[in-house]
Known about the structure:
Blueprint: H1 2-43, H2 47-59, H3 61-69, H4 74-96, H5 100-117, H6 124-127, H7 133-154, H8 158-174, H9 176-248, H10 253-266, H11 271-286, H12 290-317, H13 324-338, H14 342-379
Helix pairs in contact: 2-9, 2-14, 3-4, 4-9, 5-8, 5-11, 9-10, 9-12, 9-14, 10-11, 11-12, 13-14
Amino acid sequence: MADESDRQGAAPEASHAYTLLIAERAAALLLLALLLYGVGRVLEPFALAIAFGAFIAIGTWPARDALVARGLRPGLASMLLLVVLILAVALPATLIVPDLGDQVVAVVQLARNALDRLSPTPPAWVTDLPLVGANAGRLWTQIGDMRGNLAEVIRPYSGAIASMLISLGQAAAASLLQLLLSLLVAAMCWTGGDAIVAQLREIAQRLGGQTAVASIDAAGGAVRGVAWGVVGTGLIQGVLMGIGLGIAGVPAAVALGFLAMIFSISQVLGPLIIVTWLGASAWLYSQGDTGWAIFMFLWGLVPISGSDNIVRPLLIQRGSAMPLGLIILGVFGGLIAFGFLGLFVGPALLAVAHGLLRAWREGGAKAAAAVDERRGACDS
């Protein structure tokens, strides 16, 4: 009887202790949720800069490793990379981008005038070009044939298209501060990147084992694939376009180079790059600058188009290829969601998700194969 009464007295105490434990854990989870919410609110204004900075750091990590391998300390290597990117990207952007909206307006008007004056038949200097003259003349004729139909099709949307391009240029100007913050984030990643990667791998190991660790590596490879194969090629084509147009004396060369970069990154608008340099060549010819027209045609045919056909596959092979559909969705979805920098961040985020999913599937397939192998061993 005494034992039974003791058990009856202990039951309420155990229930009370269990209730206290549940309450403590619920309070701890609530405090953790509030902490995470507060951290999220603090970092929210810098979320895009952090994402783009990480994108830059991952894409340029081989250069950072090469500098460290030559004996430079990580801090000094990150400072050197930061100075190089400021001089090569941030400083020119600060000088060029504020007037980009007005230049895009000039480009739109220039394109309209060039289409109106474009001869339906190719000039002799185009058809007489060695090796490519026949194809170039055929392309010229096709563009001339489509000009009327194309003008009728896009006329109702011409205002919206022009407004979108102008807004894109203005968004690029508004993103200058985010770009500078992104470079600072990238510098911090270059400096402490080894420790950050080690901590991420340790967390992944505790949460998901070796499969999760492989997912981290796959995500990094996917981001590098986008950075080199998509963004890298777009930057190269944009710079080459701007240089060629500037040398030939075409107005608004910077804006046309900027648009060429956007067309290249978007993938689906890539053919407009050909229209750009071919239209510039036609405009130069209409102005009587036949020599510069030939130069611009050859410049677009070899360096600009060659960078897409040769450089892009080589760069993508060094990273992790991602389906074209995901790249297109990432570019336009990122632009709508995050603005101009979303052009770069959107594909990177989808690349991370794609890399994680692929690593998870491969890890599951390996685990299933291991289970089947053990079962076969047991049966034998």
